[in-house]
Amino acid sequence: MAVFEFAIWTSVGxxxxxxxxxxxxxxxxxxxxxxxxRLTSEKEFRHPFWDKQLALYFEANDAASxxxxxxxxxxxxxxxxxxxxxxxxxxxxxxxxxxWNLYYGQLAVVEDDETVCNAMVxxxxxxxxxxxxxxxxxxxxxxxxxRALDLAYATRLSIGNDWDRKLDNLRDEKQTNACRGSMSx
Length: 185
Fold this sequence. Notes:
By secondary structure, the protein is mainly α. The protein has a domain at 46-164 and 177-183. It contains five helices and no strands. It is rod-shaped and about 100 Å long. It starts with a helix and ends in a 23-residue tail after the last helix.
């Protein structure tokens, strides 16, 4: 009789253990499913922000690179026809205006990398700032070209670093030591 009672007790013990493991497995599976959903929905929420940030980064780099290219070709065209030189000057001014519009507008909203901000400031110092008669720095063609390349490189680094970063800093108050403050003379 003792052997029979022991067999019943152990089979009941195993049955309870299996039910407990099943219950724990269900709880862990539920936690995993909820966490997976949270991470997926967070990435879906960030996706439009990243798309806009990426588009504006490319616009800023396009404006800077076109300004540089037109400045370099303008240097070569000084002895050529004045019509082509005037067209280059107008395009260069349009790209400078585009750069400043991005600088003071939309890019400042989505830019979350101090490296890109500093590169924008440094490139902007080679241009005549709105409301000013002279650029902050006197940049020759080579310096202008290097600063445009620095902006492109900073943008590339930011894209790589920010791809999986959370948007927690969007809730932060305006930073008093933002890098854009360094543009003032």
